[in-house]
């Protein structure tokens, strides 16, 4: 029986262990010698401490010791305090928090997929390689590109990968332009990736339509520009109608066009970045093709490129070898690995399952309904919470609470907190930055007309409260396990360690 990590006593018996305000940490629940067992079926023979020798840490790890019963109860209590895509509508604009079907999880959990080590020789995992090759082909078909790496573990990682490919391409052509153009409506990861890749980010303004200003673009374009990063539909939920002209101007100065495909959910089967003229595209599989987005991952941000850029892709890629079997292959001028092994493989398996299940027609319908739902909600809310740009939206739209701030001191965050009391997740607030008091609403295709109507009624009621009894909104949320948090304090002075001194009672 282990005695490591024990914290005798833990919490005093007289203190309540259960309660909305007082969930103990696993360390506080810890009692020396308690453990939760699982059935082991490892094929690897047990090794003695002597054999493992120098690789073993000798001092005990400061881990809590909790019985299975207490552990399950602890996490069930924590989970019941949370809000999730499985619980209800999650109109968090830009994040595409749609319901993710369970069959994708079932596929990803198959032992033949989940139980395989990434170093297994190719001949023993032909099925896995076929799955990845099929997924790559599907991504290329959907985006209209020639080849793709599945390795980047998130959208932002895809951006960095794409920018490194862009740089490698320019250098191979004997140039090294250092500026990347980004519209002012772009997601914050775009300028961050540009900086991380060692480039200078140059902002181009949006015009009165909420679209890239062609005049401003002409102003900043010259041969010092390596490329543009464009999100389409953009983060206002609007389709960049001048995309052909934008790309013509960009290509004219020898720059490349990068498509931030995080909003792909709006256009699958309807429009393709490759057909629009883009050179590099990342897509967030975790937003569009199963696996919920959020909480920092895990995700998958594959990067697809034109045939002119294939040689720079990170390896390894599954390609047929001399025997006809699939083998791992690294392109000749590869920028190198951007993640260990083959990326977040089980997120890729979920995406593959989702695509196979829906097929081309189903995927197109997914995007059509995503746009339909957003347009319906936009129209339904128009009289009370009008969109910042009076255009039919794509998969999301941005409203503004500016009017309520000047009338009654009610801010976008107050309306968002109020929505929690109606049993919905809040929309995104204060993004994109170019809309004052922004409320960014993305209902997604998985919500029913009844849910959309309930959501609309909740917003209507919140607007009514903002007009009549605004002080009430400052109190929201009153029904959640925690009320308003010190978000700035949490970001600036995060407490990231167990505060009670976890190791103080170790053997
Ligand atoms: C437009 C846009 N670009 C990039 C990203 C970054 O994706 P990730 O969070 O997977 O890094 C997001 C995230 O939702 C996004 O909405």
TrEMBL record:
Gene3D superfamilies associated with the record: 6.20.440.10, Aspartate Aminotransferase, domain 1, Type I PLP-dependent aspartate aminotransferase-like (Major domain)
Function: The glycine cleavage system catalyzes the degradation of glycine. The P protein binds the alpha-amino group of glycine through its pyridoxal phosphate cofactor; CO(2) is released and the remaining methylamine moiety is then transferred to the lipoamide cofactor of the H protein.
UniProt KW Oxidoreductase keyword: yes
Glycine dehydrogenase C-terminal domain boundaries: 367-463
Residue span, Glycine cleavage system P-protein N-terminal domain: 66-316
EC number(s) on file: 1.4.4.2
Reaction(s) this enzyme catalyzes, per UniProt: N(6)-[(R)-lipoyl]-L-lysyl-[glycine-cleavage complex H protein] + glycine + H(+) = N(6)-[(R)-S(8)-aminomethyldihydrolipoyl]-L-lysyl-[glycine-cleavage complex H protein] + CO2
Keyword hit for Transmembrane helix: no
Annotated protein name in UniProt: glycine dehydrogenase (aminomethyl-transferring)
GO terms for MF: glycine binding; glycine dehydrogenase (decarboxylating) activity; pyridoxal phosphate binding
Pfam families: GcvP2_C (PF21478), GDC-P (PF02347)
């Amino acid at each position: 029986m282990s005695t490591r990590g024990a914290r005798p006593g833990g919490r005093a018996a007289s203190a309540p262990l259960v309660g909305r305000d007082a969930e103990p940490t696993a360390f506080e629940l810890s009692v020396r010698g308690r453990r939760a067992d699982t059935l082991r079926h490892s094929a690897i023979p047990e090794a003695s401490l002597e054999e493992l020798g120098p690789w073993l840490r000798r001092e005990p790890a400061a881990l809590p010791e909790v019985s299975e019963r207490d552990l399950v109860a602890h996490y069930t209590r924590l989970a019941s305090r949370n809000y999730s895509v499985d619980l209800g509508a999650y109109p968090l604009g830009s994040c595409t928090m749609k319901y993710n079907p369970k069959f994708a999880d079932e596929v990803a959990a198959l032992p033949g997929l989940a139980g395989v080590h990434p170093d297994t020789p190719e001949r023993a995992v032909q099925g896995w390689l076929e799955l990845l090759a099929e997924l790559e082909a599907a991504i290329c078909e959907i985006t209209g590109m020639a080849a793709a790496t599945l390795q980047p573990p998130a959208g932002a990682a895809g951006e960095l990968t794409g920018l490194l490919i862009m740089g490698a391409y320019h250098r191979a052509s004997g140039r090294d332009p250092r500026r990347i153009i980004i519209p002012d409506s772009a997601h914050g990861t775009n300028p961050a990736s540009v900086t991380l890749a060692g480039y200078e980010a140059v902002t181009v303004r949006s015009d009165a339509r909420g679209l890239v200003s062609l005049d401003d673009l002409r102003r900043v374009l010259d041969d010092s520009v390596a490329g543009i990063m464009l999100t389409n539909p953009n983060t206002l939920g609007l389709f960049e109608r001048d995309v052909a002209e934008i790309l013509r101007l960009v290509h004219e100065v020898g720059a490349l066009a990068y498509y931030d495909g995080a909003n792909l959910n709006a256009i699958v089967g309807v429009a393709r970045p490759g057909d629009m003229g883009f050179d590099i595209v990342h897509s967030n599989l975790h937003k569009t093709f199963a696996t919920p987005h959020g909480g920092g991952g895990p995700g998958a941000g594959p990067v697809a490129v034109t045939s002119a850029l294939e040689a720079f892709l990170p390896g390894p890629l599954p390609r047929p070898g001399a025997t006809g079997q699939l083998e791992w292959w690294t392109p000749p001028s590869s920028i190198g690995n951007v993640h260990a092994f083959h990326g977040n493989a089980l997120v890729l398996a979920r995406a593959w399952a989702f695509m196979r299940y829906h097929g081309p027609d189903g995927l197109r319908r997914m995007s059509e309904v995503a746009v339909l739902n957003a347009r319906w909600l936009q129209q339904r809310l128009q009289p009370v919470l009008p969109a910042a740009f009076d255009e039919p939206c794509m998969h999301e739209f941005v409203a503004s609470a500016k009017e309520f701030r000047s009338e009654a001191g009610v801010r976008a965050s107050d309306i968002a907190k109020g929505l929690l009391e109606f049993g919905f997740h809040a929309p995104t607030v204060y993004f994109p930055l170019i809309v004052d008091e922004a409320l960014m609403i993305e209902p997604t295709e998985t919500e029913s007309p009844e849910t959309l109507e309930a959501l609309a009624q909740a917003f209507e009621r919140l607007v009514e409260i903002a007009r009549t009894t605004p002080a009430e909104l400052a109190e929201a949320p009153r029904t959640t396990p925690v009320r308003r948090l010190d978000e700035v304090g949490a970001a600036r002075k995060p407490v990231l360690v167990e505060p009670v001194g976890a190791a103080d009672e170790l053997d």
